[in-house]
Design a protein that fits this description.
With 269 residues, the chain is α+β, with helices and mostly antiparallel strands. It has a single domain, classed as VC0467-like, CATH 3.40.1740. 20% of the residues lie in helices and 24% in strands. Strands 1, 2, 3, 4, 5, 6, 7, 8, 9, 10 and 11 form an eleven-stranded mixed sheet that branches.
């Protein structure tokens, strides 16, 4: 997996406990009489732009796993693409929050000792690797701009500087591991119907209830599909009989068990 000249840093974790799968939030659908249907707001007004065109891939885009994507590494996930070029793609899973506090992951950083906000499992590749996302109105040195005021932190220096500024947990998330593809591989997965593409926004990236994020996003795609069917528009996502492999074949992208992660040692370089 290509990571460019990223400076990888790792920290000592006492233990990693994956959150139990929470119950999905159930949203009640609107009930309208036949006579009141003309009062409904057209779906195009409130539905975000979505795409299944590989040409729309790039940094700052969200990948929302389709219901047909059964790969356990990515089933029911929402992924933010933070790096995208001809050599490879890097993404962070936004909705797999763990029970492990940041202070334990970054135990060797004195400035992180009071950080109780939980870390996220960013992806199945190199889970000991630490990354972070931060919203900042100022340009963040040593970090890569993703979209808007959101930056991807992949160096120890930038992380230490960020933590020293005591960022609000609502705009600062730490991730273990990442999702990785070759460019052609991800494009092919999109063509096969594995992913919906959305433009990222702050509310999705720093969602207060990440356990419900995928359900919220996938319902938006299905509302769009229903609208297209009603208006006669053609919308036919490709079915996936067997999800394509994810991650670069040269790296071990197998999902790790909770026990495996508990035994992992994270040492700062």
């Amino acid at each position: 997996m290509f990571l460019g000249n990223l400076c990888v840093f790792i920290a000592l974790a006492a233990m990693v406990a994956f959150p139990a799968a929470g119950k999905l939030e159930v949203e009640q659908s609107d009930t309208r009489t036949a006579n009141s249907s003309n009062l409904a707001i057209p779906p195009a007004v409130f539905l975000p732009v979505q795409s299944k065109n590989p040409r729309d891939l790039g940094p700052g885009k969200l990948l929302v796993a389709s219901r047909e994507l059964a790969d356990p590494n990515f089933a029911e996930t929402v992924v933010l693409l933070v790096h995208y070029d001809a050599k490879g793609v890097v993404g962070l899973i936004l909705n797999r929050r763990t029970d492990l506090p940041t202070s334990q992951v970054l135990a060797q950083l004195k400035t992180a000792k009071d950080l109780s906000n939980p870390v996220y499992l960013g992806g199945p590749v190199e889970t000991p690797t630490v990354f972070a996302l931060l919203r900042s109105t100022d340009k963040l040195e040593g970090a890569e701009h993703v979209f808007g005021d959101v930056y991807w932190i992949s160096s120890k220096t930038a992380l230490e500087k960020t933590i020293s500024s005591r960022p609000d947990p609502g705009v600062f998330h730490v991730y273990l591991g990442y999702a990785g593809w070759s460019t052609d591989q991800l494009r092919n997965e999109v063509r096969l119907g594995g992913w919906f593409i959305f433009q990222a926004d702050n509310q999705s990236v720093f969602n207060e209830k990440p356990d419900f994020l995928w359900r919220q996003m996938i319902k938006k795609t299905e509302l769009e599909m229903a609208r297209s069917a009603t208006t006669g528009a053609r919308y036919a996502p490709a079915a996936i009989s067997k999800p394509p492999a994810t991650g670069i074949s040269s790296l071990d992208a197998r999902p790790r068990s909770t026990t495996d992660l508990r035994r992992s040692e994270f040492l700062l370089e």
